[in-house]
Design a protein that fits this description.
The chain is mostly helical. It has 15 helices and no strands. The protein folds into two domains: 62 residues; 359 residues, no CATH class.
């Protein structure tokens, strides 16, 4: 097959997979549990498989050199593999390892090998935005029809695993960041019509966040707004105040209208926005969600003490914790909710499941990304891309203290895409004389990116 034709077909498959990724929810048939989640993960596996075939057949070139980032990624996955070999539940760990490896190969490996050009990056992000926009519209429509319910948000947030859970708002946080960046820097958003369109989109996305009962997302978005104001300065930050004020007014108004239409939604959770905001710091037994997080954090440290070097096995924490609370329900430090979830903390999950090796290699990987970003910020001229990537990395690292995203497909694939896009824009921001020579097989990044 011709190399250019193969590359075009592979990119098309990549775009389709990205568009389907946010739509991996059970909304087609509740009875048969049939939705797009039966298509998205196989599409990612097919894309990675086709990429491997192209590499073996010579239709796409192998990367000539291994970057420092590639080595750190390999080191971390090597530590996860070693923990899988010595796992207390090898089959569970093998499934977990295969899943996180697939997400890394799809989100980072495809664009690393193909070295996407500027237009191809825009198409990839556009495909992802298309699926995310449909998800936002669906979430708002469901809440308008049946009322504001945690049950709805949980169902929408459900990833591929039946008992898994992640907040869909974490997927929406980068979209909020992009809309904020458009309000701050994009020329079209400075006109009256463009500002109205971006403000309307921002209002819709923030409504989904507000209706999701994600206290961690509330705090994360607040940190994002403060970081944007700090980086952009007072004059540029004023551009955000009116759109956010308008969005807040619409959210509070819509909240009240939906409660008037549906005064008794089917939920056991108190549907009061101010109550949810005020419960962020409440870790007492009256706040089940926060108390459960504290329980899992304490238990993670207990598991680390059992296997400090290689951990108890990747992906095994949910079953280990569930077994613990079933056999010791009177333990004073734990909340026996009998929910099968992760440790609600990426770093503690690495520590418990992969031991010191997995934790250190993971922290080295994330630390390198932050250092690379800081080097870009302080060495070259400041650009909107610098502001956006810095804010994204900071709030990803902060939110990881309250959630484990390494196994959540919609979030971690976006993370790997951001890693590749960060390097693309970092190279474009370098002065021409400082750039390394580009290979002749594929074009170098466009300096105007």
């Amino acid at each position: 097959m011709d190399s250019s034709r193969f590359r075009s077909l592979l990119l098309g498959l990549f775009y389709v997979s990205l568009a389907s990724l946010p739509l991996s929810v059970d909304w087609f048939s509740e009875r048969w549990r049939f939705g797009l989640m039966v298509a998205s993960e196989p599409l990612m596996a097919l894309t990675v498989g086709v990429l491997g075939l192209g590499l073996l057949a010579g239709w796409v070139p192998w990367p000539r050199t291994a970057r420092r980032l590639d080595k750190l990624i390999g080191l971390h996955f090597g530590a996860l593999f070693l923990s899988t070999v010595f796992s207390s539940a090898p089959l569970v760990s093998a499934k977990y390892f295969a899943a996180v490896l697939l997400y890394a190969l799809f989100g980072y490996g495809v664009q690393r090998v193909l070295r996407l050009e500027r237009a191809e990056w825009f198409r990839a992000l556009g495909a992802l935005a298309l699926g995310t926009g449909i998800l936002v519209a669906y979430a708002l429509a469901r809440h308008a029809v049946v009322g504001i319910s945690y049950t709805i948000s949980y169902m929408i947030a459900q990833p591929f695993l039946e008992h898994g859970h992640t907040n869909l708002t974490v997927l929406l946080e980068p979209l909020v960041l992009l809309l904020n960046m458009a309000l701050l820097f994009h020329p079209r958003a400075q006109s009256q019509r463009g500002r109205f369109a971006v403000t309307a989109a921002l209002t819709g996305v923030l409504m989904v966040v507000a209706f999701s009962y994600s206290r961690a997302s509330y705090i994360s978005l607040l940190a994002q707004a403060l970081l944007l104001l700090a980086f952009s300065g007072r004059e540029a930050g004023v551009r955000l105040l009116l759109p956010w004020a308008v969005a807040t007014g619409f959210i509070l108004g819509a909240w009240q209208v939906i409660h008037m239409v549906h005064p008794h939604p089917f939920t056991r959770t108190k549907t009061d926005l101010l109550h949810e905001l005020g419960s962020v710091s409440d870790f007492s037994s009256t706040n089940e969600s926060n108390a459960e997080r504290m329980s899992r954090w304490v238990y993670s440290l207990s598991l680390f003490q059992q296997e400090p070097v290689v951990g108890v096995g990747p992906g095994t924490f949910p079953d280990r914790y569930l077994d613990f609370v079933r056999h010791d329900p009177e333990h004073p430090n734990y909340t026996p909710t009998l929910r099968r979830m992760n440790a609600h903390n990426l770093y503690l999950d690495w520590l418990a499941e992969s031991g010191a090796l997995g934790f250190l290699t993971g922290v080295l990987l994330l630390g390198y990304l932050v250092l690379r970003q800081l080097k870009w910020v302080f060495r070259w001229r400041q650009t909107p891309a610098q502001v956006g990537f810095t804010v994204y990395l900071v709030f990803f690292l902060l939110h990881s203290f309250t959630q484990d995203f390494w196994q959540e497909p919609r979030v971690i694939v976006l993370f790997w895409l951001a890693v590749g896009l960060q390097r693309y824009y970092g190279r474009a921001a370098m002065p021409p004389g400082a750039k390394p020579a580009a290979p002749t097989l594929l074009p170098a990044p466009d300096p105007a990116a």
